[in-house]
Design brief:
- The chain is α/β, with parallel strands linked by helices.
- It folds into two domains: about 290 residues, Zn peptidases (Aminopeptidase), CATH 3.40.630; about 160 residues, Glucose Oxidase, domain 1, CATH 3.50.30.
- Helix content is about 40%, strand content about 25%.
- The chain is built from 16 helices and 17 strands.
- The strands form three sheets. An eight-stranded mixed sheet has the order 4-3-10-6-7-8-9-5, with helices on both faces. A seven-stranded mixed sheet has the order 1-12-14-13-15-17-16, with helices on both faces.
- A hairpin with a 5-residue loop joins strand 3 and strand 4.
- Helix 2 crosses helix 10 and helix 4 runs parallel beside helix 10.
- The longest helix is centred in the middle third of the chain and has 21 residues.
- It is elongated and about 75 Å long.
- The two termini are about 25 Å apart.
- The N terminus is likely disordered.
């Protein structure tokens, strides 16, 4: 208790608030762990709405669900914020490979990369050249790559203990690999999935074409298939037979961010934001990415209202649209906040899965980060200890670029990239206690900041 007392003094908070805040944090935990609705909300979002690719009918249904959920949580005000989103569709896709010396073709599970151009439904047949990294491909003569399918065989680094560091390391092969291969004359790209999993679930995810290259088809395969393809490429010639219908439609689609808030009792024009992204890829349920963050954000509103917590600053929950393949919701929100002259004193996003929370990443000035780190002792009984990671979230990055202090909930990261962007990211993969613990942590931090601000 003495240690917590000194922590609060260092944070510049009134010492008389120490006991009260500790009790309220415990009440928040009890309310969510015993009566929380986030797991039930996630079941409805995943199983009744389903996956929610931007521009799809399911995304439109998710918006309706989100607004109703905000209202049921007790938000003082809930509304929809218009967002024009890109409309990419997957369609049918198939990859078969043929090995030297065999007339049989083996089908491999694939997922086209998000935003990629397919084969227009036509069969593309070409030899495969394997490159373990960008440097290997660059050293190949252009004639060895021209009209071939480049297989980027870059492994997610298992030696990096924080898996998000591994994601940053391997992610460029998904994001810009197709452009790099196209610049060398390749006809298509296959990537080893950006995945920690020892399985055969392919991982999709967003990619981007450079302006000066041809838009070639790009697909991902799971690690088991990639292991097999690697061995076959080492021992002989391999031919790919690829058909895919994915494409970006010309016209954008009107969609919405879903917003709910509790008005601040002292500073109603200053906002503390909590959020997640409502869209998902079209494989699986989008349960961990990012249904979990959405229902945790709604739970913040519900718990505040249920416990009668009256924040001094306005608490706003936002379900952003189009994080996965455009970030249009984040930019639309930031544009609106700028146009309206809204002041955000803090923004946090949950977009790292519904696993047990371990801490918060911070992207802000040192003095503000120091204040949040002073709260560490208050969070230790709830399993949170890591306040040293840097960063916020993709959807709140436009706000952060305009100077808003940002943070991210950091759950245990070890299993996230087994499931991320796959058909295996389903409701059944989420544990109700872990999901609720994340909601507890978010609500507790929002309580502290909505009460004391950031000095």
């Amino acid at each position: 208790m003495r240690k917590i007392f000194s922590i609060i003094l260092l944070a510049g908070l009134p010492a008389t608030c120490m006991a009260q805040d500790s009790l309220i944090m415990r009440k928040i935990s009890d309310e969510i762990m015993l009566h929380g609705k986030c797991y039930d909300d996630l079941r409805v979002l995943c199983k009744e709405v389903g996956h929610r690719l931007s521009g799809s009918p399911q995304a439109a249904k998710a918006v309706e669900w989100g607004l109703e959920a905000m209202q049921e949580a007790g938000a003082d005000r809930a509304w929809l914020q218009p967002v024009n989103v890109p409309h990419w569709i997957r369609g049918k896709e198939q990859l078969k490979i043929e090995f030297e010396g065999s007339s049989d073709k083996v089908e491999i599970p694939i997922l086209s990369l998000g935003n990629s151009q397919g084969t227009d439904g036509k069969l593309l047949a070409a030899g495969i050249v394997m490159a373990n990294n960008f440097e290997e491909l660059e050293k190949m003569p252009d004639e060895a790559v021209k009209d071939k399918v480049v297989f980027f065989n870059y492994r997610f680094r298992q030696d990096l203990l924080h898996t998000f560091h591994g994601y940053v390391d391997a992610g460029p092969y998904r994001w810009r690999g197709p452009s790099v291969a196209s610049a060398k004359g390749a006809s298509a790209v296959i990537i080893r999935s950006v995945s920690t999993g020892i399985d055969d679930f392919p991982h999709t995810g967003s990619m981007h074409y450079a302006d000066d290259v041809a838009k070639i088809p790009a697909v991902a395969i799971g690690n088991s298939s990639a292991d097999m393809l690697e061995q076959k490429c080492k021992t002989g010639n391999v031919t790919a037979y690829l058909t895919s219908e994915c494409r970006m439609l010309k016209d954008s689609v009107r969609s919405y961010n879903v917003i709910g808030e509790i008005e601040g009792s002292v500073y109603p024009n200053k906002v503390v934001l909590v959020g997640g992204h409502l869209d998902s890829w079209d494989a699986g349920d989008g349960a961990h990415d990012d249904g979990a963050g959405c229902v945790q954000s709604i739970e913040v509103i519900r718990a505040f209202k249920k416990l009668g917590i009256k924040p001094r600053y306005t608490v706003r929950a936002v379900l952003f649209m189009n994080e996965e393949n455009g970030l249009r919701g984040g930019y639309a929100y930031d544009d609106s906040a700028t146009a309206r002259g809204e002041e955000h004193i803090f923004a946090i996003e949950s977009d790292a899965g519904g696993f047990s929370p371990r801490g918060f990443s911070l992207a802000m000035e040192d003095d503000k980060a120091r204040q949040i780190r002073y709260y560490r002792e208050l969070f230790k009984p709830y399993g949170l200890y890591d306040f040293e990671q840097k960063g916020g979230g993709a959807d709140i990055s436009p706000l952060h670029r305009h100077g808003v202090p940002a943070a991210g909930l950091r759950p245990d990261p070890q299993r996230y990239f087994d499931l991320h962007h796959t058909a295996n990211d389903v409701f059944e993969q989420v544990n109700h206690r872990e999901l609720k613990l994340g909601a507890v942590a978010m609500t507790q931090l929002i309580y502290l900041i909505s009460n004391y601000g950031l000095k």
